[in-house]
Amino acid sequence: MSLSKKIVISLILGLVIGLFFGEYCKFMSIFGDAFIGLLQMTVLPYIMVSIIANLGRMSMADGKTLVINGLKVLILLLLIGVLTLIILPISLPAWTAATFFNPSSVVIEEPLNLIDLYIPSNPFASMANNVVPAVVMFSIFLGIGLSKVKGKENLLHGLDVLSEALNHINKMTVKLTPIGVFFIAAYNAGTMSFDEIQRLQAYIVIYSIAVLLLGFYWLPLLIQSTTGISPKALFKATKSTLLTIFATGKIIIVLPQLMNDVKKLLIYNKQNRKEAASATEILMPLAYPFPNLGTFVIFVFVPFIAWYSGNSFGFIENSTFIAATLLSSFVAPVTGIPFLLNLLKLPQEMFQLFVISSVYTDRIRVVLGAIHLIALTIITVKLTLGGVAINWKKTFRGIIIGVVLTSFTLIGARYYLSFSLGKSDQYSNFIHIKMYNKHNFEAIKNANTLIEDTTYSKPKNQISTIKQRGVLRVGFLANRLPFAFTNNSGKAVGLDIEMAYLLAKELDVKPEFYKITEREIPTLINSGKLDIVMSGLITTTDMVENFKISNSYLDQTLAFIVPSYNRNKFKSKEAILSQDSIKIAISNRYFQKKFAPYLPNAEIINLTSPRAFFTNTAEEIDAYLFTAESGSAWTIIYPEFSVAIPQPTIIKMPMAYPLPDDSEWIAFVNTFIELRQKDGSLNQLFSHYIEGKGANYKEPRWSVIKDVLHWVK
After folding, report:
1. Number of structural domains, the chain?
2. In this structure, are strands 554-563 and 623-627 parallel, antiparallel, or unpaired?
3. Does residue 187 lie in a domain region?
4. Are 613 and 607 in contact (CB under 8 A)?
5. If you count Cβ atoms within 10 Å of the first and of the last residue's Cβ in the chain, which end, N or C, has fewer?
6. DSSP code of 520?
7. What are the tens digits of pLDDT across the range 442-477?
8. Domain end position, chosen among 604, 634, 654
9. Has this prediction a pTM greater than 0.90?
10. 538 three-class SS
11. Strand 510-516 vs strand 492-493: parallel, antiparallel, or unpaired?
């Protein structure tokens, strides 16, 4: 049985097992990750050896013109690839999913060092750290240097032996592909939500469009325009080889046959047999290790992941992506894509989606790669030996038809995807968020009953009073996402609400929640009518003048909430200061003091709450000065907005709980906070509410064993 059949059978079997056992297949991710590691093991060494050996054995005197022309054509083809990567994401529909707070976003960003990325000042460090562009650059220079050295035959022979050894290792690993695909398919089929599977189709659709348009229209048009070889003649000569490449998923195993096809095309096109054969035999093996459009364009997976995560690339991110892809495409996608995901701070775990989709995309990728090699070889040989004659009339007509065809295809794909994908369910998940720990929900009471109680006298000992009444009275402010808010059931939830339950449990009493306003805090706290206020309050000097507070239990990060299309205007101090006049909304004047150096030309607008900013339609406001942790939660409700944290200065603000003036009670709460910090409870709640893990809670995946046969619960 052929390897391709084994892979297809393994894929189907893995999908069946995943659907049958569901989340019981989670453990299989270990074996899938191990297989991916084996695939990546030989890629970088093999590419290094191939580039060095092919460039090293080339005679610069004999092949100078051929190589220069080949580089010109390669640059032209890669420019087509760059243009494709720029326009292809246009077919992705508007996706307004926002993201919860990510702690890595408040780490001071080191500026992208293009010298370290592309210049291998320490080649061994570049290899060890998988800095792909620098490793490729080192290999190119070493190969060129070797080409000018005499007595290099033994070294080249050694490199050929090493290349063959690496190729054998790769073949051994490839034999494990059915097993690896089985584990990856079973894990993903058992654990991926249907929403995730639905969104993955967007990547498969846009990449398939790229392969069809480039491989079967634009490249044949380029060949016909420059050499006169028609698409019909092109595919008649190469049809069987391309089908073999699609079936096997490999170009290298049919490279000799591909060279024979190109020779026949050149000879048929009245090119000198001997010269055409010689040039083809030099050029095609030399061009094979270099980037091809199939590999280059598959890196569209990276902007797809940015879109998938609700954070589509802006101009700066897209420029970084294109620049890094130019050299990352020298290596296989299994090496280049993880590097780019890490470079652009995208979730590494999304690489699993690429692997599962590669069962299909790898086959069309190598077909486009083969057509790229054919185009590169034919055009370069014709350019070198003579025979390039451009028919401008046919070329312009072909370009116009191609532009219309491409435009309609991309627009059609966007329309189809916008219809089939629907809307993000993040908002629904967020308002249905559950407590991290199991608690019996307590009703929210009216604070007016406390305010109007004139018979109440301030207790001498707050702890004794709490235990005598059997209730911990907790005040909270409305809409303090994600620290204190009401979910769709009208229940109080949030990090501080759950901390209140834990504090009440520590006292062996029940919590009693009162919705209050900021103005009511001093009266209710200083009188002892409320035992504590827990609502994500930022500590300020104004606060300590009005009432006692606990020790800080968490920090928040000052940031701007802006319309998503404007987020790059607020990502650095320089970007903010470069704007002549801006309108900044605030609801905490202390924030304005902290950010004063950033806002010398700003018009400050006071708002009562974040919601007033998000729902504002009467006045054009550029940004809202808030915190990243809270602001990220608000963007889930209003996903057309984003959080911008100005770099490189990160300003942190501590949070604390207002308390009555009782030293024993203050000491008790401070000890409680320290214990929750030490035992990890606070970190768990932070992950659940602030990072949104609670909102991303998935119901157990549907499976045959659970939902059909009912063998397990």
Report:
1. 3
2. antiparallel
3. yes
4. yes
5. C
6. G
7. 778 888 888 887 777 788 899 999 999 999 999 999
8. 654
9. no
10. strand
11. unpaired
